[in-house]
Design a protein that fits this description.
By secondary structure, the chain is α/β, with parallel strands linked by helices. The protein is about 50% helix and about 15% strand. An 8-stranded mixed β-sheet has the order 3-2-1-4-5-6-7-8, sandwiched between helices. Helix 7 packs across helix 8. It starts with a strand and ends with a helix. The model has no long low-confidence stretch (mean pLDDT about 95).
Amino acid sequence: MRTGIIGYGSMGKMLLWKFSESGVACKQDLFVANRTREKLDDAKGIASICGSNAEVARNSDVVFLCVRPADLREVLDKIRGDVKDGTLLVSLNGSISFEAMERVVCHKMAKVIPSVTAEVNKSQTLVCYNRLVDDADKEMLLRLLQTIGNVIELPEHEMGMGSELVSCMPGFIASLFDVIANSAMKHTQIPPRQAVTMLLNTVCATGELMLKNDMTFNDVVTRVATKGGITEEGSRVIYDMFPTVADKMFERTLEKRRTVAEKANESF
């Protein structure tokens, strides 16, 4: 499987190195190009450095388009004459629709949304496909994406909320527990670093417990919160007050996502 990556920013670089480290693709089957070629110096040992995006397209069975929304139209324009009939184009931008991209090049396409947790091979990676993709294409892409974690297929219209739940969520979770940690610091002499470590390990272990035992959130609350006890008191505050914050968070993020998508698709 000859794999190409156009764009060597944080996501393109992460994918290239993960594909190489996992052994799913060897050096002669990895191709990469970037607008600033000097940035590719550290990739010379694991991939073929291409002089243009078109060269990547000519050599690859699957091409990851790791570029900004504002640059995607130009990239598609420049490679459409070089993409082989059987090649799968994979956009890492969820904002631009298949319908818009197909106005530039009518080809087999997928959209992929990884998470920052791909760095520890724990990404919950979202994927959707256009109507031209077949089962063999899906299997090829799955083999690559499984090197960074789990793969979840969604319909295109659900990729927005899906992104909130897996791609944006590490930021939301970090924000939430930053607030909790700062609040705890007002009531303790435990060193901040130690308190944060305690909190993070408990969060990770709770998730592992739930997944391993197929538990719901309510199962955990019931297990820990004895009637009239301390946990019940704290949980009641969260259930009483936090829903308003969560609703407002999703209202704002989904509206922002809608406006970003509208602007991105205008260029097509």
